[in-house]
Amino acid sequence: MKIYLLLFLLLFQFSKAQYNLPKDYFQSPLDVPLVISGTFGELRSNHFHAGLDIKTRGVEGLKVFASAKGYVSRIKIQHYGYGKALYITHPNGYQTVYAHLKKFSPEIEAYVKAYQYDKESYEVQLFPPADKLPVKAGEVVAYSGNTGSSGGAHLHFEIRDAQARPMNPFLFGFDDVKDTRPPRIKNIYAFTASEGAHVNHKSGRVKLKPIKTKNGNLKVPEIEASGDIYFGIEAYDQLDLAFNKNGYYDIQAKLNGLPFFETTFNRFAFNETRFLNRLIDYGYYLEYKKRIHKLRSHDYRRLEINHSQINNGILNINDTLNYKYDLKVSDFKGNSTEVTIPIKYEPGINVERDTINKTLYYVSHDNAFALDKGLVDIYIPKHALYEDTYLDIEVEGESVKLHDYRTPIHKGITIGFDVSHYNEEDKKQLFIGRKMPWGDIYYNNTTKKRNRFTTGVKVFGEYILAKDEESPTITPLNFRNKQWLSNFRYLKVKIEDDLTGVGSYRATVNGKFILMEYDYKTNTLVHDFNDGVVTETENNFKLVVTDQVGNTSIFETTFFRKN
Predict the structure, then answer these.
(1) Residue 15: pLDDT above 60?
(2) What's this model's pTM, rounded to 2 decimal places?
(3) ∠ CA(126), CA(78), CA(548), 5° rounding?
(4) Measured between alpha carbons, how far is 56 from 70 in angstroms, rounded to an integer?
(5) Helix (H, G, I), strand (E, B), or coil: what is residue 113?
(6) Strand partners, 85
(7) What is the DSSP string of 445-456?
(8) Which tens digit of pLDDT belongs to each residue from 126-182?
(9) Is residue 6 assigned to a domain?
(10) Are residues 375 and 460 in the same domain?
(11) Do residues 294 and 414 both lie within one domain?
């Protein structure tokens, strides 16, 4: 039997990671008041938020300034993710990142455009030498936008250390953000963590009913419990000038007045970030789109945000002690909300227990697993699962129902299909897709090698071998055949593919490659005539669009333009 009183008597000092940080080195990347729509460490889909999302008053095109002197060390342009992103390395070893940009400053834009035309590709990644694009503190390096996987116009800003680990920008003196409101704890939950454990005679996830006290804090009526339990919260923070529900900064817990658990969002490494799916109640999130932050760690050393924790945050409730669990959730400004949870030991009698569905396939977290069944094979690498799990696997023809979508996956699982019975023409249009419960099929990146197609998945669900016979559609948006476009700056085209999606595109004018920027959110391609590559009066425009399985559409037209 574990006795926490003895643990508390051990020499133990609860400590946060200490950083020797420059407080006045970095300046704001925008010249507008800092209004934050996303804070560092926020719990996002499959990752922690790596920086600050700074509001740009709902518009694009605000000047973005270098936060300190340095040089542009990386430029990345992609359809998704960060969109147009700029990375600046500074003499002190830190790096700042500016993402979802509309465009770069003229010198940087010219450098990038030359590379894009040389590679004949919109998506590029460049690593300029240190002497190529030096910048001064406060120099305009870009303009804010909404590119990539951005849900609205804003600037994503990061500070990374010398090991490329994102750090909380608030640690560097960005303290002019107005925040006088404490975090809000919407819901509190208790979880059982051992066989026979219970909370109020229930096992699994148990929702508690907090009462608001006169000082604005919360108190949970005394709960009855026994065995190993832990707690979880659904919470957020709001700054004064924004309605966005942001992440909190620090969580501290005490057990009977002594430090027991702490999480602080100061820094993390990108190879840690997917452990978020272990930190939250993943199944609850998928069902209800609400994240419960579990105040425990299966191995706190995997995440730097977790500090020294007694028993990884798990309480052992037995008949030797009375218990009082005090929880404090704070934002970076020090505003906080506190919760008190008194706990009474009560033996587990008539406990409502969750049942475990024992299947034919028991997969150990510490070992790889392979299954070859019919036309389908599955490979699960070591540590792809977070814990030992009975997997429910059903194979029927060219379809596999792979376990429960509410179970998180850490590493990619490989699913393979035998396609030897298809002819070569049919194989070209085949792909592996995820079939949703409502019937829609979403393309999964498919690797084709002779008679075996494979895909990597990080979500359980139903995967099938499907066929795409439809070519993409191409629609001109701001011009028609044989139109004069002398007064137009942009050439705009809409491209769509309903099943597997656009795989590639290439545009030419009079046989010469022209750059067209692709916005997947609006399905538009845009060419800027200011690029200077369209120089003739009569111009034959050709656009070739190919979907993910090779179906191709070609659009050709003629337009006229005086230069």
Answers:
(1) no
(2) 0.94
(3) 125
(4) 24
(5) helix
(6) 76
(7) --EEETTEEEEE
(8) 999 999 999 999 999 999 999 999 999 999 999 999 999 999 999 999 878 899 999
(9) no
(10) yes
(11) no
